[in-house]
Write a structure and sequence with these properties.
The protein is mostly beta strands. 8% of the residues lie in helices and 59% in strands. It starts with a strand and ends with a strand.
């Protein structure tokens, strides 16, 4: 990760060093070349950016022992695989206050409900979080986070946006999780005013050698999803896969990936997937590179 201070100095900015020293520029580029086949059987060659992003995050200490925190993060996916002229996509954009009481954040933020299972989405498939009216991020959020040793708690209230964006109603979202000795367990809850509650349960285990296994179940009314995934490492190479199902929907989605680590934060990989939910026949084959900075 590169310190934003270096960029500020190079650009001749006169920001105070104490403020800039705790701010970090970071990002991830995950780009592939491959072939996608849709449910109609038509195949196209693709260049895709997947979960690529760039962001700035940090904290500014205050005299009273608390800190002002901040994060602004953009998706670079559209800028890469959508004619190169699309605007950067919105991800996180919030400012917070952190102290012994925990942390309060205000702005565009991932919902606690989605964050409950996010640590187990290590393949970035996202299918395990796909459920009616439960977006991963939402604007106008007021979030609170607090840790109690290995136990974490988060809650968010999202008031109705007068401009008609978001879900159009008040939303409450929360999570409780446990993360210790490789064991991860979480429960997430979310409800939009006048709607049905959504619940998610996530269970995972990471072995000392880096092997992983995870299970996620979420439910909203009759909408029920399950996902099972795993990762096995040997040396600098790995294989990982995920399968997901939906209640009363024929078929499943399946993804298999194999990769090799070239260096710290950088790997090459190949991925194969098939999605025959609702008797569809979509599939993909890709080769790609991931670079974290």
């Amino acid at each position: 990760m590169k310190k934003l201070l270096a960029i500020a100095v190079a650009a001749g900015l006169a920001a105070p060093m104490a403020v800039m020293a705790d701010t970090t520029l970071y990002g991830k580029m995950k780009v592939s070349v491959g072939s996608n086949k849709d449910a109609a059987g038509d195949s196209v060659t693709t260049v895709e950016a997947h979960t690529s992003r760039i962001g700035v995050k940090g904290a500014t200490p205050m005299d009273n022992g608390m800190s002002v925190t901040h994060k602004v993060e953009f998706s670079t996916k559209n800028a890469i695989d959508n004619d190169g002229g699309a605007a950067l996509g919105a991800r996180d954009a919030w400012v917070g206050l952190k102290g012994g009481f925990g942390e309060v954040r205000v702005g565009r933020h991932a919902t606690p409900y989605a964050l409950a299972s996010d640590p187990l989405d290590f393949m970035n498939v996202g299918g395990q979080k796909t459920i009616e009216d439960a977006p991963f991020r939402i604007s106008n959020a007021i979030a609170y986070l607090k840790g109690f040793g290995p136990i974490g708690f988060a809650a968010a209230y999202v008031p109705k946006d007068p401009n008609g964006n978001g879900l159009g109603v008040d939303v409450v979202s929360s999570l409780v999780n446990y993360n210790n000795n490789g064991i991860y367990a979480a429960w997430g809850y979310q409800r939009a005013k006048g709607g049905r509650p959504a619940n998610t349960v996530a269970l995972g285990y990471t072995m000392p050698a880096g092997h992983k296994v995870g299970f996620v179940y979420n439910k909203k009314g009759d909408n029920k999803n399950t996902a099972l995934n795993g990762k096995y490492k040997f040396g600098k190479a790995y294989v990982q896969g995920e399968i997901g199902k939906r209640k009363d929907v024929d078929g499943s989605y399946k993804v298999l990936e194999a990769g090799y680590q070239l260096g710290k934060g950088t790997s090459v990989w190949t991925s194969f997937g098939k999605n025959d939910l609702n008797n569809g026949d979509a599939s993909h084959a890709r080769v790609g590179i991931t670079s974290n900075f």
